[in-house]
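Team,

Forwarding the record for the chain on the shared tracking sheet. I've put the sequence and predicted structure together so nobody has to dig through attachments.
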Amino acid sequence: MGELIRVETAPMSAEMALNAMGQQLMDMAMLLRATNERMGALEREVRRLTKVTPSQASMLTAAIRQRAKEICLIHRCKGGEYAAGRAIRKGIYATLGVTNVRDVPRDDYKVAMRAIELWDDYEVMKRIREKVNAHG
C-alpha cells in the first residue's frame, strides 16, 4: 500500500505544480494588463499636455475673428464683432477647459476649430445686439 500512495501523490504534485504555474501566468497577465493601462493613461496625459503650435494658435484666433464677423452679420449687430469674439473665446475655453488659445491641447485643435465654426448663441448675440444698438 505504501507504493500505491506514492503513485497517487506523484500525479497530485504535478497537478499542483501546473496549477501554481497557471496562477503565476495569470498573475503576470494581470500585471502586464495593469502596466498597459498605466502606459495608456500616461500617453493620454502627454497628449493633453502637448499644446498647439504657435501657428495653430494663430489660426484659431483668426477663425474666432472670422466667426465673430459672420455671426454679427447673421444677427445684424454691426459693431459687436469684438464682443462676439470674446463670447466665442469664452465658450471655447469652457468647452476645452483652457484659459488661453495657446493652452489648447494639440489633440483638440480640430475640435476647437469645429466648435468655432459652429458657435452661435442666440441669447448672447441678442445681448450684444441690444448693447450695440443702445450705444449706436
